[in-house]
């Protein structure tokens, strides 16, 4: 039986950093599910058709990390048919041997409710904005407004809203260095049997 780790949380909380480090540590596959929604949001035309025909080359576009791509992703992510089109691929990925780490918004609640370990990663709005602004070389105030708008939309939508699963461990990285956050996540995963 593969071991599945579900990592959810708001924008720029450190999900991806922790997910990549866990995958490396345990030799698991890693899927950044936000990239799927970013790729759908970046495609022209009907987002539902875009989600149904998503291909590996769509995920390789180099403009997907921008704040604009994040906004477009969060708009298409509220469309039920878009989410439905992406479920099977994510669930199949989650069954990768010997294990998989998926990070997103609804992994612990919808995609992998039976995951062996669920983390819900947070950090204060200001700290998340500072980290993302540094990463993108962008203005902090503009990024703060963008993250807040996106988090509000992601938490308020009817289908698969962003929220911690009842059995998720809450992981606030506001005061943690990357090294500390990663070390604690590895300890949680060992405890869960990884
Ligand atoms: O995947 P998510 O959008 O949640 O966040 P990320 O891309 O892992 O992290 C956002 C930024 O914060 C990256 O530049 C990380 O290097 C940085 N970060 C940090 O400074 N301290 C942490 N404890 C975690 C991430
Ligand atoms: O890296 P960051 O946390 O800023 O964003 P992301 O993980 O790349 O996700 C971009 C957007 O995709 C989010 O704001 C959500 O609207 C959407 N998303 C989602 O709805 N469900 C997921 N499992 C992952 C992302």
UniProtKB/TrEMBL annotation:
SUPFAM superfamilies: P-loop containing nucleoside triphosphate hydrolases. ATP binds at residues 9-17. Residues 5-40, 60-189 form the Cytidylate kinase domain. It catalyses: dCMP + ATP = dCDP + ADP; CMP + ATP = CDP + ADP. Signal peptide: none annotated. It comes from the Bacteria. The keyword Kinase applies. It is found in: Cytoplasm. GO terms for molecular function: kinase activity. InterPro entries: Cytidylate_kin, Cytidylate_kinase_dom, P-loop_NTPase. Keywords: ATP-binding, Cytoplasm, Kinase, Nucleotide-binding, Transferase. Belongs to the cytidylate kinase family. Type 1 subfamily. This is Cytidylate kinase. The gene is cmk.
